Each structure stands twice: as structure tokens, then as C-alpha cells.
Amino acid sequence: MEKQTLPAEVRTGRGKGPARQLRMKGQIPAVLYGPGGETLVLSVDPTALVKALTTPFRRNQLIELEIGGQKQFATVKELDVHPVTRAVRHADFYRVSLDSTAVYPVPVRTTGRAKGVVKGGELRVHFRTLPLRVAPDKVPAEIVLNVENLDMNESIRVKDIKLESGELQLPAERAVVFLSSEVKKIAEEEPAPGAAAAAPAAAAPAAKAPAKK
Prior knowledge:
The chain is an alpha+beta fold. The protein is built from five helices and 13 strands.
């Protein structure tokens, strides 16, 4: 992973008033905390921050903060986003070291058409992200699982996943992807929607027209 550089400045004012003034100047309040240093109250350019996060790594992107001539590695821990405009209003950065590991949620993506799906089964993905303990500069953008050879009632378990770096923080036998035939079978046995209601109506005798006087 290539780092993204983001300039930041230490700020002194706190509270809603200074934060509002900061946003009027085109900046947003931010904070940097974590092991290896003191907590710093910062200001950053929201446009530059969004650009730094517009990578395949998203929130896991390694960011190099430039603060008063000093450089510190961090990842985004939390973003406060306006509910309507979706503009970023505040950012929390977590300090990281390239010499230590942390747990990151990495997206899971499947590729290929499973053999079991061709036979009528259903592919179930139990996890959309997987917790991976790894160095911050070794985080993958995603974990890709090829399901082409997956047949009925077969699964891809944690121990089956091969990674270039890091270790998944789940039991080895935990199924990440499972190919089930149960859903399709149940769907075939159940009557079509409305069929049960239509049957009595069809069987009911037609109403007799009133006799002419």
C-alpha cells in the first residue's frame, strides 16, 4: 500500500465556536491520538482528506500526517459526516507504527460462478468484512475468494484463505462462504404466492342469478 500525505496544523481553540470559524475558512477540526505520542488537536483540509481516502483501501488507507515539519503515520478512526450534504465535519485519526500490527476490517469479494450455483444452489457469504491483524502498510484492499469449484453444501473456511501477509482473527473452522441447496429446495416445495388463495375461490360454486318474476 502506498501512503497518502495529508498536511495538518495544530489548533488551540476548542468548542463549537472555534470549530464553526474553522469550517468557514475551509478547514475542519480533527484529533490525532494513539500509542507513541500525545493527543493532538488538529485542523485539516476536508477536500484533501476525502481525496486521500478515495482509494481502494478506503478507511484502511495509511495516511502520513505532516504536522509542523513532523510526520506521523495514522489511519482514520472516525468521520463525522453531515447527514444531508455528506460533507465531512470532523475526523479522528489513530496513530500507527509500521513496526507493529493492528486489526483492520478488510472487505470480502467473491469471484467466479460456483458449480453448486449452476446446479441450483445458493451462495451464502457470511462475512462482508474479515478482521485481519497486519502491519498498517500491508493491509490488502480486499480479500478475494474464488468460488468456481464450490459444490453443493461445501464452504470456504478461514483456514482455506491464503494471505500474503497478516492473520485472520477468526476460528480456523469458521465458514466464510457456504453453498447451500436448502433455500432452492424449500422454494420448489412451497406453493407459488397466491396459489393457495386462488384454489378455494376457484372451487367455490358460482352464485345463482336471481329468478325472474
